Inverse folding.
């Protein structure tokens, strides 16, 4: 089955969001007080259903093909590296904030970059156009404080 890890990420994010709704809990990476497991867990928590929906749509659109190209094992390693890297950048930029970092956005932007590198020839113009739209839309959301963290750019 293709896209196994993408499907795992997709379903895990949905299950975690259901957990959030039922318990009223939002766990994220908070530089003021965090544990090491938060460096991965924060990616599965989302601040709203809209945040979750956009992340999952982007995950399916960009992640599936990236996983197909690099293979499930390398894709899983890429997930852990980009997710931890985004967390580290967030902590370095906002070391004293009480606002938690949540969501798959840091990973998704890593996948977009990976897609652009891997598909340089065949789908280059299409991927650049879609990627630019996603990046511009995210910058718009950050600028108007509809989402708020640097993990998108990390």
């Amino acid at each position: 089955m293709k896209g196994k890890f993408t499907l795992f990420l997709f379903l895990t994010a949905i299950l975690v969001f259901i957990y959030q709704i039922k318990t009223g809990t939002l766990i994220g990476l908070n530089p003021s007080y965090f544990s090491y497991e938060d460096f991965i867990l924060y990616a599965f928590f989302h601040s709203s259903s809209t945040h979750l929906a956009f992340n999952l749509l982007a995950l399916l659109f960009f992640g599936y093909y990236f996983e197909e190209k690099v293979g499930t094992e390398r894709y899983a390693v890429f997930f852990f590296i980009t997710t931890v890297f985004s967390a580290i950048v967030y902590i370095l930029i906002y070391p004293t904030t009480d606002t938690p970092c949540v969501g798959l956005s840091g990973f998704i932007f890593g996948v977009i970059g990976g897609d652009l590198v891997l598909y340089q020839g065949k789908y280059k113009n299409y991927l650049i156009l879609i990627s630019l739209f996603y990046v511009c839309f995210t910058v718009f959301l950050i600028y108007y404080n509809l989402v708020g963290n640097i993990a998108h750019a990390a």
Observations:
- The CA atoms of residues 142 and 148 lie 5 Å apart.
- The radius of gyration is 15 Å.
